[in-house]
């Protein structure tokens, strides 16, 4: 059986991320990893903070901190938020780690050895006011393609087009704001992607045919336009240094590798960090080097697709070493905020730390995955969020759990009642639940998250329909044993919901499961036969009524959220 390697795009170190970042990579990766583990597969989920490059230096400058200290603080701050969202990383590393430095420099040496790195003199923007060459992201201006006036020198955040700093209109320094810029000659290392284009095309032809259209179309667009040789070094004080044993002149000048060269390599570096915590039982190379039994799935938003489907595979291919390359790329469109783009740099939208201040993580986890921007951009609105939480979580699932357990305790005490033997209604319910569970599993296997959420919601709804049909509050008046059967069956549904809902809402799933005092309850998933029989919780099992799982969002709540974060004008 294949082992599963899962990575999600590395979040930048420069501040707490917004909900768009969460749903575009880390959260769906977590949901999928949890599902794999529950269904008996070995899965390793690796992520890290992306700590190099201009964003880190600029953010540290703004915070008046040394960049190393700033990154260390921000790593802990981000990790605390991800812990709050119950993201089940096996390891959450740092791209500034010694392990990443070592492996990045190894990759560079191998590419040089194989003729895929070349030192070239280029003309680069120099800031007279700052007295230094400016890396691409230190230059801001107007995008020549879409007119966005805060485009960076490497990529326009608005239209996602890759840029050269000299493309910008009215360019200025991001450090000083000065427009006193001139172009001077300097030396950098270039990755000769043009020499690797044929190999990358062949690799995508073989491995990319089953990718989502979003991922494969972006990759093929880049290949159709032709791979250009790309500078992989920058003039920065913070980053993986160019190794002096290979490029002594550039090392003496303080050149570091471009963040998009070392950041994907950090997936490997973080795995090595993970393994170093238990070297006797963990082998990082078995996941990355000659790892033929590993299925590797990456999760990312669409702006990260070119780097992961073209640039990083080209880098791996060029080493002429058997590094593991991605098998499946799950790409996402944008989550927008009332139709406007979430933006870390412009502080527009809901940020993950603020989200957790308002409501528990499960509210956000469920809503985001149920509305994941898989086939198109998805707009977040507070009205839609409240309607989904109230209908699906509070009314459909939460109310079912509360009324079943409360009514049974009131009428039959603190143990699961026995009642009659299962009848036709229970047999039909079991058949329906088994079918819905199979549908849910299929969508999860295919990484179709919105469809999986629909199937999960249908599972919850089936319990409500059964309860309404049997009406134990009426049944108990004429057939107490029949009512006991209905409630026992419903309690078995609650246990099933606890198990299969865990990838989406882990805290609530744990609360449902802990309601039953079952000895040896180690089940991680539910088989089709178990779903049909619904006998997880036998009669006589003690139970408690947990606190309300999901509180409804009121009109007053909604008004306060809109006042704090903004609403229909598209601005936060």
From TrEMBL:
Query: For this protein, what does the record note about how its cofactor is bound?
Result: Binds 1 zinc ion per subunit.
Q: Which keywords are on file for this protein?
A: Aminoacyl-tRNA synthetase, ATP-binding, Coiled coil, Cytoplasm, Ligase, Metal-binding, Nucleotide-binding, Protein biosynthesis, Zinc
Q: What sequence ranges are listed for the domain Methionyl/Leucyl tRNA synthetase?
A: 4-405
Report which residue ranges the record marks as coiled coil: 426-453
Report the GO terms under cellular component. Answer: aminoacyl-tRNA synthetase multienzyme complex; cytosol
Q: InterPro entries per the record?
A: Anticodon_Met, Met-tRNA_ligase_1, Met-tRNA_synth, Methionyl/Leucyl_tRNA_Synth, MetRS_core, MetRS_Zn, Rossmann-like_a/b/a_fold, tRNAsynth_Ia_anticodon-bd
**Could you tell me the EC number(s) of this protein?**
6.1.1.10
The domain of life is: Bacteria
Cited PANTHER family = METHIONINE--TRNA LIGASE, METHIONINE--TRNA LIGASE, CYTOPLASMIC
Question: HAMAP family from the xrefs?
Answer: Met_tRNA_synth_type1
- Family (UniProt): Belongs to the class-I aminoacyl-tRNA synthetase family. MetG type 1 subfamily.
**Self-association or partners: how does it assemble?**
Monomer.
| Descriptive protein name | Methionine--tRNA ligase
Organism of origin: Streptomyces triculaminicus
Lineage, top ranks:
Bacteria, Bacillati, Actinomycetota, Actinomycetes, Kitasatosporales
